[in-house]
Amino acid sequence: MNKEFKNLRLDQYRKVFGISKNFQIVSASEGDGCSELIDIILNFLPIGPMLFEEDTICDQPLDNLLADLVREQVLINTREEVPHSVAVKIEKIKEIKRDKGKKFTAILATIIVERTSQKGILIGKKGSMLKTIGQTARSNMKKLINGPVHLELFVKVVPNWRKKESKLMELGYELDY
Predict the structure, then answer these.
(1) Model confidence at 80: pLDDT above 80
(2) Angstrom distance (rounded) from CA 132 to CA 135
(3) How is the chain split into domains, by residue range?
(4) Domain 62-170, CATH class in plain words
(5) Which of 5, 20, 108, 128 has its CA 20 to 30 A from that of 59?
């Protein structure tokens, strides 16, 4: 983009936002001017009622978020070896108190695939792939839960699970007909 065009755009933005002073150009990738931009935008937003509690970070239940963290690692680590016919079901989440009073969250999850060959890929040689998936997912879960996590993963073959309405509903998929 040439300099003349940039200056024209900047003048247009100044007029639209009613800014007379010289302002910093914003670069999201570099982080330049982002906080100033947010302050300007906040002045234009109406004040309304809170729709969620102040500490709410997402409108999805915890088990959906945890399942997504596992599924994300399956897709990242297996790349194109396992197609997107993978689902994750969180079977159990339990907070456990140790002898010395420290707590941790125990999570039991099942990774569901459609073919036996996919199960083999997910487990990997001597369990190496499942270990990698579990370690990375557990690390991300610790950040989300803000505490120690014990994650146990299992892989289950359910042929054609994506074509079974009852299985889709069990896994939390909404069916729009």
Answers:
(1) no
(2) 5
(3) 3-44, 62-170
(4) alpha beta
(5) 108
